[in-house]
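[stage:ingest] chain + small molecule (NAP)
[stage:ingest] validated
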Amino acid sequence: MTDTLAPVRDGKIIDGKAFAADLRAKVGRLAAQFEAQARRKAGLAVVLVGEDPASQVYVRAKGKSTLEAGMASFEHRLPADTDEADLLALVEALNVDPAVDGILVQLPLPRHLDEQKVIATISPDKDVDGFHVTNAGRLAVGQPGFVPCTPLGCLMLLKDRLGSLSGLEAVVIGRSNIVGKPMAQLLLAESCTVTIAHSRTRDLPDVVRRADIVVAAVGRPEMVKADWVKPGATVIDVGINRVPGREPGKTRLVGDVDYAAVSQVASAITPVPGGVGPMTIAVLLRNTLVAAYANAALDLASDAI
Ligand code: NAP
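[stage:predict] done
[stage:export] C-alpha cells:
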C-alpha cells in the first residue's frame, strides 16, 4: 500500500518541518510493518568520537528520532584519543551485526583519524549516510544505492513543490561531497540542466540568475541576494550559519540566502531554520528503513517511501 505524504504547497514558504514530520510518521508506520514481518526492529548505529558539542547535539537528536520512529538505536561514544584501529574494528563489528541495518559515523572526526578510511570501512549496504564511494558511484551511474540525506531531502521538497523537474535550469552553489555534488547528480537524474557553481565561479550572480531552481550550499551567511534570483525561481537554502543576534550577546541562525529580500522575488523558498534542516534526520530514518528491508531480504515497494 502506498500512502502519499501530505503536500506542502501553501504559499511561498516551503515548510520542511511539516514535510519532515510527515516523512517521519510514514517511516514509523513502515518500521512497525517491518518489525511484524522481520520479528526484529530496524536498527541504526551511531558512532561518536570525542566531545564536539555540535556533534553531541546531532547524535542525541538522531538517537531520539530513531527511537520515536520505532527503530532500535545503538550509540557508541568513544574518547577523542581513540586509535584508528579500534574505530575501524568497531565499524567492522557493526558491519556484521545482524541487529544493525544502518551505520553512521558522526563527522567531523578528530584530526588524527582518516575520515575517508573510516567511511570506506562501512559496508556500502549499511552506509545510510551515502558517503561511501560505492554509493557515490551508484548515484553517478544511476544505480540504486544510498544517497546523502540532506540533498535527498532537498530533492523531496523540490518534487513536492514543483512536480516534474524535467527541463528546468538548476544552479547548485557548492561542490562538497556531502551536499553540492550529490544534489547536482540528483537534479541531473530528474532531467534538469545543471550548473555547479563554487568559489572559483566567475560572475556568480549572473550564473544564478538563469536558474529556475537555486540550491545554495555554501556556508556564507545571506550570500545570495535578491537581484541574483530570477523572478519566480524556487530557492532551496541548505546553509546553516550562526551570526550575531539583534540583542547583544545573542546569536541567531541564517541561511546562505538573504531570505527577507529573496522571498520577495522567488515563487517558493525554504526558511532557515525550518526548511532543509529538519529533512536531514527524517531522510536518515528513511534510509535506515530501506536498509533494513534490504538486509532482511524483504520487499519494500520502490514507491513506498
Ligand atoms: P563545504 O564542504 O564547506 O562546501 C562549501 C562549498 O561552497 C564549496 O564547494 C565552496 O567552493 C563553495 N563556496 C565557498 N565560498 C563560495 C563563494 N564565495 N562563492 C561560491 N561558492 C563558494 O560545506 P557543505 O558541507 O557543503 O555545507 C554547506 C552549508 O550547508 C553549510 O552552511 C552547512 O552548515 C550547511 N549544511 C546543512 C545541512 C542541513 O542539514 N541543513 C547539512 C549539511 C550542510 P570550493 O569547493 O571552491 O571551495
